Amino acid sequence: MHIGLVGLGKMxxxxxxxxxxxxxxxxxxxxxxDVSDVPGLAELVAAVPAPxxxxxxxxxxxPTTATVNDLDGLLEAGDTVIDGGNSRFTDDFxxxxxxAAKGIGYLDCGVSGGVWGLENGYGLMVGGDAELVQRAMPxxxxxxxxxxxxxxxxxxxxxxxxxxxxxxxxxxxxxLMQAYAEGYELLAAKDIVTDVHGCFKAWTRGxxxxxxxxxxxxxxxxxxxxxxxxxxxxxxxxxxxxxxEEAIANAVPMPVISxxxxxxxxxxxxxxxxxxxxxxxxxxxGGHAVTAAGPTSGAGATExxxxxxxxxxxxxxxxxxxxxxxxxxxxxxxxx
Length: 336
Prior knowledge:
Elements: E1 2-6, H1 10-21, E2 25-29, H2 41-47, E3 53-56, H3 62-72, E4 80-83, H4 89-100, E5 105-112, H5 117-120, E6 123-127, H6 130-135, H7 137-143, E7 153-157, H8 161-189, H9 196-202, H10 212-223, H11 239-249, H12 255-267, H13 273-286, E8 291-292, E9 316-317
Parallel strand pairs: 1-2, 1-3, 3-4, 4-5, 6-7
Antiparallel strand pairs: 5-6, 8-9
Helix pairs in contact: 3-4, 8-11, 8-12, 9-10
């Protein structure tokens, strides 16, 4: 089988290599000429025999839509496009309809495995017509992990179902990572625990919380046991938000995944406007003491260069004449 592959970044490049190792012929295109097999999409389409299968592996949103539109003008009836990126499932409906007008098939494929997929294989979740799925099965079999097909591949349903399943997969991933992270912080905070890394490593065999994510955390702690080399600033790529939006739309309670997503938002704040408001309110209704902002509102060093904020910056407790003491109505300590 000979296929086209558009997008040869960290995932796409490894997928090309895994497909070739399995004996498939792959013509790849990337805007980076150093990794591309052909100079453009037109040359890719010309190189792949009809009926063609072209797999897209580019960032979701506008880049994917632009690639689909470009291929729409180059491919022929009977060809098939597979979107293996992290597209929102609603985008699949539009892409499939656009291509169908010319008789071009469309499959959406959620892909999990990251940079480890080249050696370990990729978990695949596919949406679309069963006949098209069957035609592309040699590709899926080459990419998925070794072992029973059902343990690394699923035809999840109609167009959009593959990316929907991957969206939920990534939402679950948010929750799992957050749980491990909170456990890490508590172990690190307790003075009687002297080997945090060892605790996590001991969980990797025989325990109910063992997983590949746990293995990766152990690896990260082996390289930097106190995680001093990185900031606690976490981005999100979209799937967690979409998962929570779908939970709201379908009235599905999702407290864990929602909290994990919001924790990422909180990680990007040097100082929280919401917590400032809470502090101000406690001061107003109960006379509770507040903490004065430093010269950059908690984002820089204060007197003597002492740091105590979440990012190494600091605010200071108000002392002396500037202090606001708890009043008799607070019920939270001395009222003198």
